[in-house]
Write a structure and sequence with these properties.
single chain, 415 residues, alpha/beta, OB fold (Dihydrolipoamide Acetyltransferase, E2P), Rossmann fold, eight-stranded mixed sheet, 10 helices, 18 strands, 25% strand, globular
Length: 415
Amino acid sequence: MSACLYDHLCGGCDRPQWISAERKSHLLCELSKWANTPSIDFGYHAFGEWSLRDRVDLTLDSSSGTARLGLYAKTWGERELIDLPGCPQLSPALESWLRDFRRDLPPLEGRGSVRLRVSPSGLRGVWLDFANIDLKKVLDEEAWLNRQATQSVIVEMGQRRKRAQRDDSRWRLVDPRPEAWFETWLSRPSGLATHRESSLDLPLLSPHPLYGKIASFTQPSRAANRELIRLALRDLHIEDHALELGSGIGNFTLPMASRAKSVTCWENDRSALEDLHFNLERAQLLGQVQIQAVDFIRGLHSESMAESMAESMAESMAESWAGRGDGEQPRSATPNFILVDPPRAGLGDFAETLAKAQGPLSRLEKISYVSCYPESWARDLRILNSRGWKLIEAHLIDQFPRTRHYEIVSHLRRG
């Protein structure tokens, strides 16, 4: 019997009928078809059926005068919102926060999205993404924000992710400051990035705070995230020079910087870049990393532009190492390892550039490709394979139980 009373209604779980054994068999069979490589045995990594999520995104609709907070129904063609008093997919701490939030909803009259988070330390946060006129009503009303403040709840509002803060006279929206809403895992303790161990197979030693906004993108589950990082970086060694495409706030960047000889990051979101810098600085890993504001999905429309970006990356990395003064220079600043974690649409035009691995990318030997969408992953895989890249290992990370979704971690090498 299901632990959820809303399985037959709520669209959050679109495959609740699969029991564990059926689910594993079905997903692995599907992934094998997408990859079209029957010689590969796919790893399967599951973390239980319930209580995985440490953040949740819901819809709050108060437009009819009666507030409903939840997810949309399974029924195709309808937009019925299922009012959810709780959800067993959430971690116990997050479900408790959801129940408390429902008891004291903000004074909103329209419809918008709500993100709830609970940090590893138990800090509660909410991001209200509503129309500006609705958010102004919350600021002017003040009473709801005052009650949240007494409970140490952090409130962010709007597309600009501003933080609600009270001064001497009233509540205002100010620039948010990073909080440790999530965690990543390092291969070495912080501050020891220049230490060189003899082993190439470095373990993940300890969790490390990952700072950002409530609205920042992170993986949904801290439990699954550790395995995701371990698998994504298992082909990264201490003498490697790494390039990361789409680094976000640093979930993979910090572990890479704690392991590799050098790391270069491409990221274009301003908010993420700010948090990435903050996280690297706090972890004492900033000297290991070159950060570049590059949109490799939309910005690299031609081979010449791609090479220009890559040349800039290589030059900045070389300058960084030249100024270290620790007597330890890399044999080359060009990367031999690359980690890509693109959006659902995949690599786009950059897949062909990556597949060619020419010019400053000519030393690429290893690709770690993390994907949340098998269709685009399979398309990019075909392009890479046509240029001599061979899939050598792939893993299915089942961090969205009772749904059709999953994460893929794959490793490719030049054939």
